[in-house]
Sequence to fold (292 residues):
Amino acid sequence: MPTSRRTDGVLLAVAVVWGSSYLTAKTATDALPVLTVLLLRHAVAALACLPVLCGPGSPSRAERLCGVLLGLTQSAVLVLETYGVAHTSAGNAGLIISLTLVLTPVLDRARLPGRFFLAAAVCVAGVGLLVCGSGLHAPGAGDLLMLAAAVARSGHVVLVGRVTAGRTLRPLPLTAVQSVAGAVLFLGPAASGLPTLARTGAVTWAQLLYLALGCGLFAFLAQTWAIQRTSATRAGLLLGTEPVWALLVGIGFGGERLTVLSALGAALIVAGTYGGRSIERVHRAASAYADP
Fold:
């Protein structure tokens, strides 16, 4: 399999996992405080990485510094997304977070042809159709949080590309430090909610493990690995398919219904992503050929 296809496949897997995280996190936060869920999401991942942190292949100084920085930015994204969804409609949240499709190339200062932004606009329009069944309302605090989350997520994707470019940084140690940084960050604010863990059932613990190991450890590791092998703009576009997977998970496991408009929106997102992906690949190849 060509490297580009393998990298795209990994990024799509991250989008699938993150898409499934909404239903999982929503259910988990019904049983536990939001900050407690975020703490455990990072702490369990950090514990799973102990052999990496303490073994012979422990993180280098550069990996520790970059891991802390990326851990802080990723934690900011998760906080803004979680509280944003809690204070706005699913329709507004999905539409606003989709702005990462446009914000990532802007923050990445990518000089792309207008066709790329047309493809990104098709994706945004698709998200609008995908979520319009739940209705949009006047902007509020939750909407502003989701806008901040879209900016933070785009910035995080760009930052991963920038800090790893031209450096020998191993994805696993980098991800391990990132998880530790998030756990330390949430430990103080989430401490008051820790006693509730004594009453937490097996289903909630299973959800926490999935959030930590699947949506946390795997997703952080895979995202870092993939962005080192592609552009931040291309990664942002592929990760932008997340609303489609969130819809499919909601239909399959959350009892949600697929409307005609939702199906059309999902189709537009897939088409826009595929088109933008092709445009970005051709443009990057042409740029590399033009540079001596």
Summary: The CA atoms of residues 70 and 159 lie 8 Å apart. DSSP finds 13 helices and no strands in the chain. The first helix runs from residue 3 to 31. The mean pLDDT is 81.
